[in-house]
Amino acid sequence: KAREATEAGADYVGADDLVKRIQEGWLDFDVALATPDMMGQVGRLGKILGPRGLMPNPRAGSVTFDIGRAVKDIQGGRIEYRVDKTGIIHTNIGKASYSEAQLKDNFVALMDAVVRAKPSSAKGQYLRSVYLSPTMGPSVPVDPVAAGRMS
Q1: More reliable by pLDDT, 113 or 24
Q2: Which of 23, 83, 33, 81 is nearest to 56 (CA)?
Q3: How far apart are CA 13 and CA 1, in angstroms?
Q4: Model pTM above 0.85
Q5: Phi and psi of 144, rounded to 5°?
Q6: Domains and CATH numbers, the chain
Q7: Spatial contact of 69 and 7, defined as CB atoms under 8 Å apart
Q8: Helices and strands in the chain: count of H runs, count of E runs
Q9: What are phi and psi of 123, to 5 degrees?
Q10: In this structure, how many other beta carbons lie within 10 angstroms of the beta carbon of residue 110?
């Protein structure tokens, strides 16, 4: 599986060595993937990875035996978003190094995915407010009607 991940283009591949690095405070990655047989070791990292949204999760597709495909999906631009119990969507649409056009394309793709995921039972205005914010900084309001039309 390590060779499969490397061939697919994973930036970091390992097992015990990566677990140890993460326990020592290294978090220089955006997504963590694991095979089901590694979850015993990865589970010990829950207090570190969980609060940062980096803990591998079978529902999100980040715990899989098909690591090569998961790496390619992520590098191909697949984004995951989480919705908390208050209805707030948490995700990232890019990095500071992305161009304005790339960020806009990613935002449009996110809005499209959110609107397509709207339950048929949902009535009224689906998007009540939309804000974009950097990891550390103030948020910027986006017109929810315009955001909904972008999809």
Answers
A1: 24
A2: 33
A3: 9
A4: no
A5: -65, -30
A6: 2-75 (3.40.50.790), 82-149 (3.30.190.20)
A7: no
A8: 7, 4
A9: -115, 160
A10: 19
Q: How many CB atoms lie within 10 A of CB 99?
A: 9
Q: What letter does residue 65 receive in the DSSP assignment?
A: S
Mean of per-residue pLDDT scores for the chain: 85
Residue 151 CA to residue 142 CA, distance in Å, equals: 14
Query: Which of 17, 10, 51, 47 lies closest to 32, judged by CA?
Result: 10
Q: What is the pLDDT of residues 63-75, one digit of tens each?
A: 999 988 888 888 8
Distances (CA, A) of 116 to 23, 30, 60, 73, 146: 38, 25, 17, 20, 16
Count of beta carbons in the 10 Å neighbourhood of residue 14: 12
Question: Looking at per-residue confidence, does 149 or 42 come out higher?
Answer: 42
**Which ranges of 9-139 does DSSP label H, i.e. alpha helix?**
16-23, 39-42, 46-49, 67-75, 100-116
Q: Is residue 68 within 8 Å of 8, Cβ to Cβ? A: yes
Distance CA 4, CA 84 (A): 34
